Every structure is written in structure tokens, then in C-alpha cells.
Amino acid sequence: MASAGPTSNSFISQRLKLHYVDWGNPDAPPLLLLHGGRDHCRNWDWVAEKLRDRYHIIAPDLRGHGDSAWSPDGNYAMDIFVYDLAQLIHQLDLGPLSIVAHSMGGNIALRYTGLYPENVCKLVAIEGLGPSPKVIGERAKTGYPERFRKWIEDKRQAAGRTPRRYATLEDALARMMDENAYLTEAQARHLTIHGISRNEDGTWSWKFDNYLNVWPAFDMPQDDIAALWGAITCPTLLLYGANSWASNPERDGRLQHFKTAKVIEFENAGHWLHHDQFDRFMSTLYEFL
User: Is 42 helix (H, G, I), strand (E, B) or coil?
Assistant: First the structure.
């Protein structure tokens, strides 16, 4: 008989204790659910509940998020996240597996799949390609030394910033609902409860590390990232919300780097389309998986 919810577990990656939840059913094919930036693994609960009978579902908290440890140096480079994912899949012997990932999680999953194409049999990335070519072009207009100095200044400011404290859980809930107007109150409450922890003085703060607000100044060259996309051999879905800030790769040219990818756009959906259009998302997922 299935348990009411997932069990909490941990693994070690580069000396950090990282958290993941396991929805049981270990004899079923493995399916990994990877959340986005400043989010947490319980973001996937609705999806996991629908799929737990046919898959062995694992959902990790990325380092600096949820119930995983924070990076001691406050650095969150993409290659470190990819290493963490590789460690989880290696330690739990999950490959070959399917992956469904959102935003930054999608970026991580796409890079991992390009590195280890034999380990992934199906991949769904929700708005996971990172900045659009237009945004990258705008950034490139700023000289390297200036970008480097700005990163140092941003890190310095983050070091002096204390995590925001909310007097009540309801105050944090209101902030969550302001962030995504498509969420129902029930969805927002669930995401808030699992994304917040209580301080000693009774106030509440988000679980994620404030340093995550400072995006790394350096990354792989874009041509190398595109080469990883091109190395992906499994069927791949790239999902986009019509009302999101994210750029659709079918229109901005990035789809050409993929050999096996298809883009689907969701009407009346923003960046969190798996919440905004849950029924359609699940229908798309059932058909694809």
C-alpha cells in the first residue's frame, strides 16, 4: 500500500548533504523531477501523486534550496549543479531514467543529458534553456571587466543582506501569490508551507539561500552549451508558457541546435505552466512518457 506522501532522504555531493524525496514504487521505471531556482522539491507533489503508481519518482532539493545544505562559499555555478545531479543519479543507480525539469532545473537537466545521453531515455524541460539570444547579446555589450566588477559588488551586497522575515505564514503566502497570479490559494499555500521555515523568534523566512539572487558572472561559452543540446539523443519536449517572460526557442532560433526536440506552447500560462495549466500539462506528460 502506498504511503500518503514521500519519504525524505539525503545524499552527499562535494561534502554537502543534499535532500531528496522518494515517492516509493522502486520496481517501476525511475522518473526524476527537478525544480527551478528559489523553489523546492515539493513543488512537484501534484505531478508525483498522479504518476507514482507507474514510476519510481525521485525529487531532489538543489543545493541552497529547500532542505538541502547551502554552499559554504555562497557560489552556485551551473557546473556544480550538474555535478550534484550526476552524483544523485550515480549514487542511486537511476540510469537510464526519464527527467522532468523546470527553469534552472531544466537548464541543469539539459546539460547533464548532453553529457550522458545514454543515461536519459525521455526529457521534458519547462522553460529550461536559460537567457534568450537577445538577452545574451545585450549582456555581451557590457565589457568583461565591468561585468566582473558588478558581480563582486552584487556578492558584497548579498553578504550584508539578512533573509527577509515574515511576521506570519499568511504574510509569506501573500508574497507567494503576488509572485504568480495564476496560482490558486491551495497551490500557493502548499508551496509556501514547504518552502518556508520558522525562525527562533517566531517569524518565517524562505528556505533558499539569498546568494542565489546573484547569478554567476561566468558560465560555459554559449557554443559549448549548444553543443551539449545537440548531443542529446532521447526524445525531448521543450515546454513554454505563452504569457511567460521566457523566449520560445522555436521563434528565437535555439531549437535548431536540437536533434530530437519538440516545442509546445501553453496558452494562458506563465513561467510555472505546470501549475498554471496542470491538467493540460499532465495530459501532455502522459502522452509523451
Answer: helix
- Distances from the Cα of 225 to the Cα of 48, 56, 88, 219, angstroms: 30, 30, 22, 9
The answer, as to whether pTM is greater than 0.90, is: yes
- Burial code (b: 16+ CB inside 10 Å, e: under 16) for 121-137 equals bbbbbbbbbbbbeeeee
**Comparing C-alpha atoms, which of 213, 196, 214, 216 is closest to residue 205?**
196
What domains are defined for the chain? Answer: 7-134+217-288 (3.40.50.1820)
Supply 199's cell numbers. Answer: 525562525
Residue 82 corresponds to which amino acid? Answer: V
CB 69 within 8 A of CB 11: no
> What are the mean pLDDT values of the chain's consecutive 10-residue runs (289 residues total)?
81 98 98 98 98 98 98 96 98 98 98 98 98 93 93 94 95 94 93 97 97 92 97 98 97 98 97 96 98
Question: What is the C-alpha separation between 43 and 46, in angstroms, rounded?
Answer: 8
Q: Render 1-32 in DSSP notation, one character per residue.
A: ---SSPEEEEEEETTEEEEEEE-S-TTSPEEE
Beta carbons within 8 Å of 274's beta carbon, 6+ residues apart: 47, 102, 126, 239, 281
**Contact between 113 and 123 (Cβ < 8 Å):** yes
For 24, other C-beta atoms within 10 Å of its C-beta total 17
Beta strand 56-60 pairing with 7-13: unpaired
The length of the chain in residues reads 289
Opening angle at CA 34, ends 216 and 192, nearest 5: 90
Nearest to 114 by CA among 254, 32, 228: 228
Peptide bond into 145 cis (omega under 30): no
Three-state DSSP class for residue 272: coil
